[in-house]
Amino acid sequence: MEFRRLKYFLAVAEELHFGRAATRLDMAQPPLSRQIAALEADLGVLLFDRSRSQIRLTQAGQVLQDHARQVLSRLEAAYRETRLVGTGSGGRLRIAFVGSASHGLLPTLIKSYRSYYPDVELVLSAMNNAELSHALIAREIDLAVARPELKDEEFRRELLCRETLILALPDNSRLASLPEIRFADLADQVFVLYPRRPRPGYADVVLDICAREGFSPAKLELTQDFQSAISLVSVGVGLSVVPESVSSTQRPGVVYRPYAGHNPGTALTVHARLDNRAPQVMNFLDITRKFARKTLA
Amino acid sequence: MEFRRLKYFLAVAEELHFGRAATRLDMAQPPLSRQIAALEADLGVLLFDRSRSQIRLTQAGQVLQDHARQVLSRLEAAYRETRLVGTGSGGRLRIAFVGSASHGLLPTLIKSYRSYYPDVELVLSAMNNAELSHALIAREIDLAVARPELKDEEFRRELLCRETLILALPDNSRLASLPEIRFADLADQVFVLYPRRPRPGYADVVLDICAREGFSPAKLELTQDFQSAISLVSVGVGLSVVPESVSSTQRPGVVYRPYAGHNPGTALTVHARLDNRAPQVMNFLDITRKFARKTLA
DNA sequence: TGGTGCAATACCCAAAAGGTATCGGCCAGT
DNA sequence: ACTGGCCGATACCTTTTGGGTATTGCACCA
User: Fold this and answer.
1) What is residue A247's predicted lDDT score, i.e. its pLDDT?
2) Is B91 touching A (CB cutoff 8 A)?
3) pLDDT at residue B196, rounded to an integer
């Protein structure tokens, strides 16, 4: 049961000459002879017919030659693929992100990662912050792109981008035609907020702006996620406060407007488990870091 | 490229515990840890995630586990099959025989061999003595069953059986109805002999009997092999002198009769190259020896 | 019958693998 | 927070295995 012996055996089987095989294996002839003898002893089988000046393979030797070639090439493949996955050039990376990240820098970041590591299988899914946290802890995902950042101390994090908040308004809203919108004037508006759960969450960031601007919204409409909120805005239910980047994607019935007043902004942060040092994860975080530097500069 | 390490790796991958894996491998834990570390160093890849109390496989580790299982089972199969072929329980045995052997003891001998070694593939073919000799020397066959024995000193031989000669007559022959046939009375008969080439051969054995009985056949008909000779007999061309065993198979138009007079008999002998010590060959010769003892006794 | 080519053997040294003792880090239980 | 226990890693030594050089032994050839 030794691999080296198979390699030696194949060399002798191909050369049909111990001396030449030893040269090819870059070793002396006697140890080669001994290894072959040991292999034969292990098997209890003669592999070479040494009766004549010309060595020849026995039937058993031919059988072993066929198998040994397969075994060694399989082994080679095993090592190659393991290295690929182990260095992060292959394998799988499971990334989940908040819905509001699907329009801004994240797609570009992911494209950038793919250009460096085209053979890594990406598994993408959208979740809210609470689900992201759960999934990350349960190791159901490798990376979580959250807004705002997740609080857990067991996570490694990398800031992707900061952006200001803007208003998403129904296009028939009176506000849409004003030259400037002051947040403090929105007290009588219907605020479409998300997520409904868990609280505190992004919805509370918006409520905090209201409080700072001196009011509490007349009416709240809570949805589970960003996509639903925008849908409600588009049908005229009310306005929403969203990250600036989402305005890059136009949607019928919705217009985006900056506002005057307190603007805490919002940040997209990439998270991974501290104990997950998988090269795919580390590579993605490295690229995120470079990407963020370039973008913030 | 070390095989033991794969086995160790699989044990740890399955137990996810170095201590238990070491116990299962019947060794101490430290060398096991070191072998795994060496494997990881060889690959330049982490295979286990040791960050928590519970060890887990990395992605690369899972890939290697899958491959390692395959490699090891392939290796196992390689060893198993090589042993099978190497001990003569498997593989192939190429036997050629003279046509006149296809009716007597040879089929029984072959059946006997098959009952001991059912997994050996038998490749059977019929040849005359000269072809047998050639094929054996050229290693195109492993065993030659010849009549009479081949002269080459490079052959190992095993006597299968001796038998007396009898006459094969056309069934409408006048001779067929006689109570006794004396060979010396056959001088005016047409003798159907074989093989045409090479000479001297079996045909000369028969001519020698004629000479000893004091005549030279009035007419000779030479054919290439036993089968053709019997065919000519069956259509009334003449008589032939054949081994007794062929009479066990009846053929329309042919009757067999013993004769009085010189009867040198004939022997069936199994031959192999002296340098062919393949277990399949040795086993067949062993069985032939036992078989011959039993039959001659 | 000596010469040559090649695998096998003898003998020695270096490298690798295994064993025992021990360290160090991480939980768990008080 | 401290401590004991579990478990993998490290240190250090011993044994085993593999490789190298020199030489033998066996065919084949002239």
Assistant:
1) 86
2) yes
3) 81
Number of helices and strands in chain B (H, E): 9, 12
Chain C nucleotides close to protein (CB under 7 A) are 6-10, 17-22, 26-27
Q: Which residues contact A105 (CB under 8 A, 6 or more apart)?
A: A160, A161, A245, A268, A291, A295
- Angular region, A210: left φ>0, alpha ψ -120 to 50, beta rest: alpha
What kind and span of H or E run contains A193? strand A190-193
pLDDT at residue B197, rounded to an integer: 79
Of B64, B275, B278, the CB nearest to A59: B278
Cα nearest neighbour of B39 on chain A: A79
Q: What is the pTM of this model?
A: 0.84
Handedness of CA A214, A215, A221, A222 (dihedral sign): positive
Shortest CA distance from B43: residue in chain A: A83
Strand C and chain A: which residues 16-35 have CB closer than 7 Å? Answer: 17-19, 29-30, 33-34
Specify the DSSP class assigned to residue B235.
Answer: T
User: What is the SS3 assignment for A276?
Assistant: coil
Long-range CB contacts for residues A207-215, cutoff 8 Å, separation at least 24: A208/A264, A209/A165, A209/A183, A209/A241, A209/A261, A209/A262, A209/A263, A209/A264, A210/A183, A210/A186, A212/A262, A213/A183, A213/A184, A213/A186, A213/A261, A213/A262, A214/A184, A215/A184, A215/A186, A215/A187
The strand pair at B56-57 and B48-49 is best described as antiparallel
User: Most B CBs within 10 Å: which of A82, A121, A284, as the mutation test of the B interface?
Assistant: A82
CA–C1' gap, A274 and C24, in angstroms: 21
The confidence score (pLDDT) of residue B297 equals 66
Amino acid at B238: G
Say how far apart CA B127 and CA A240 lie, in whole Å. Answer: 97
pLDDT(B121) > 80? yes
Work out the pLDDT band at A200, boundaries 50, 70, 90: confident
Closest CA to B56 of B12, B19, B88, B90: B12
